[in-house]
Structure formats: C-alpha cells, structure tokens
Design goal:
CATH architecture of the largest domain: Alpha-Beta Complex
Number of strands: 12
CATH superfamily of the largest domain: 2-enoyl-CoA Hydratase, Chain A, domain 1
Strand order of the largest sheet: 1-2-3-4-5-7-9-12
Shape: globular
Largest sheet: 8 strands, mixed
Strand content: 15-25%
CATH class of the largest domain: Alpha Beta
Number of helices: 12
Structural class: alpha/beta
Length: 306
C-alpha cells in the first residue's frame, strides 16, 4: 500500500507542529514538494485520513505560475496514490488571500503557444482534482472529496481551483471574482463551465461579463459556497466537515463522488444505471459488513477501506 508517510520518508518528510490553536490537538506530516509554493501535510491520530495542501507564495498573493502549478500536480498525484487519504483540504498560508489567480508577470513573458500550454495544463490539473475526467483517458484522478478553504481573495484561476473542489467554505471577508474579460480573455481553466453548474447560466454570465466581485455571504446565498462563516473561521468549519467525512466508509465516499460527478453529465436513465453499478461494487466489501455489525452492536464502525 502506498501512503503519504512512505512518500514522505523517501522525500525527507518530517513531523512539524500544527499552527495554533491546534498545537495541542494535532501533529502534521510535512511532505517535501517539488515546489516551494505548495506544501502537502496530513493530520495524525484519528484525523490521519485528512490531508491538507497549503498554497504558500506570499510575495504575489499565491498567484499561479509554472512552479506552483507543478507543485499542485505533484501534490494531487501523491494524494491519489495514497489509499489511506480520505479527504483533502486546500488552504492558504498567506493571510487574507486564497489565490489571486494566474501570475500575470510570468504570463507576460510567455509566447502565445506557451500561454496555451499553461492554461491547458491548469485546466487538466483542476479536472484531475475534480475527478471529472474520462477514466479511459486519465487512469488516475483524485477520488476523494476536496474542500476549498477560502479566506480573502479568490480571483480568476484561484476561484476556478475552488470551483473544482467538491465543497467550498468561505469566510465573510472572502472576495471572489472572475476578472478575465477585463484582460480581454475568458476564464480558461473550467470557470465558464463549473460556475454555471453551481449558480446558473444567468448569474454566471453577469459575473463573468462584468468581473464583479462578490463577498462570502453572496457566494453562499447564490449556492457557490456551502458555508459562509465569520472571518478566520473557515478552516475550523472545513476541518469539522473533513472529520465527519473521515469517519465514513472510504470506499463509499469515493464511489458516491464518482456517481454524483459522472451521473450529473448524462441522462437520468444512464445516471441511475451508473449508480447501480457503483452500489454493486460495495456489496461484497469488508466495510459494508463492518457497518452492519457496528450498527447491531451499537458501537462506532472501524472502516479499513476494503
């Protein structure tokens, strides 16, 4: 079994203290990334199935350049290979910002073909995160739920990354925007497709046509965010949700994500047939029998992902 711990040992990983106020509750395993802009950590003890990706490029408000993009790819692929990872949270190490979007200074140095290559890679990386890609074309994708923890600015590609996650938790001070049309381009990493699926075509058109900024409360009211909480508390809420997911049957969670994502893209009859296929895959698992036994014995189940 490949785990993040074994990856860490091979890459010089080490245990580090968790940021306050969680210092007395958790430790995290820090994995050395191929990028200085992205750190991959997992919680320990009963929360060891929870993994966090930290965006850490403070000088440019976590703007996405090639180095950060490669770091995201590496992190998502490492998590996908780890059968003990149950849920992912993406958050920022930089105060008052989630991700400012693409690195426009780096973009200015690129040729048109280089820009196209970058945007295509960004789009495929976010599709990998969402696990919406055709499994025949992409043999591996991120099967586990992902949660975007949004405090502060989430613009352009930063918002597109959040849209690629399964859940979005916003602080009240969050500011979200698709400003691309102001640069004479359009959102190119899935924004024109994922935003309408969450908030509808009309609202999406207005937000993309105008580049209007919205706050966390607006994002929640229009269905873009699952929760809006007081500023500074988005991570606490995300952690609460992640802990709840982490206690469930991991195979069931992965297949539920797949059934919802892939079923949403087809007609109802095909979607129901796909749901049946996913359900059947769980019938002969150890976890299903453990769930029934735990219910009968009035105890918490101990799922092993088998």
């Amino acid at each position: 079994m490949v785990t993040l711990s074994s990856v860490a040992r091979s890459m010089g990983g080490r245990f580090v203290g968790y940021p306050k106020p969680y210092l007395s509750q958790f430790r995290t395993l820090l994995l050395q990334s191929t990028s200085q802009c992205v750190n991959l950590r997992r919680l320990s003890n009963s929360d060891s199935g929870i993994v966090e990706v930290y965006l850490d490029r403070p000088g440019v408000k976590n703007a996405i350049g090639w180095d950060m993009l490669r770091g995201l790819q590496h992190s998502f692929e490492a998590i996908s290979r780890d059968s003990s990872a149950n849920v992912l949270m993406i958050r920022s190490s930089v105060p008052k910002v989630f991700c400012a979007g693409a690195d426009l200074k780096e973009r200015k140095t690129m040729s048109s073909s280089e820009v196209q290559d970058f945007v295509n890679t960004l789009r495929s990386t976010f599709s990998y995160l969402e696990h919406l890609t055709n499994p025949q074309k992409v043999p591996q994708a991120l099967h586990i739920p992902s949660i975007a923890v949004v405090e502060g600015a989430a613009f352009g590609g930063g918002l597109e990354m959040a849209l690629s996650c399964d859940l979005r938790i916003c602080g009240e001070d969050a500011v979200l925007s698709m400003p691309e049309t102001g640069l004479a381009i359009i959102p190119g990493a899935g924004g024109t497709q994922r935003l309408p699926r969450l908030v509808g075509r009309s609202v999406s058109k207005e937000l993309i046509f105008t580049g209007r900024k919205i706050c966390g409360r607006d994002a929640f009211s229009m269905g873009l965010a699952n929760y809006c909480v007081p500023s500074g508390e988005a991570h606490l809420k995300a952690l609460e949700i992640a802990q709840s997911i982490n206690q469930k049957g991991p195979l069931a969670i992965r297949l539920a994500k797949r059934a919802i994502n892939e079923g949403f893209e087809v007609d109802m009859a095909s979607a129901l047939a796909f749901e049946e296929e996913c359900y059947e895959q769980l019938l002969n698992t150890k976890d299903r029998l453990e769930g029934l036994a735990a219910f009968a014995e009035k105890r918490k189940p101990k799922y092993v992902g088998e």
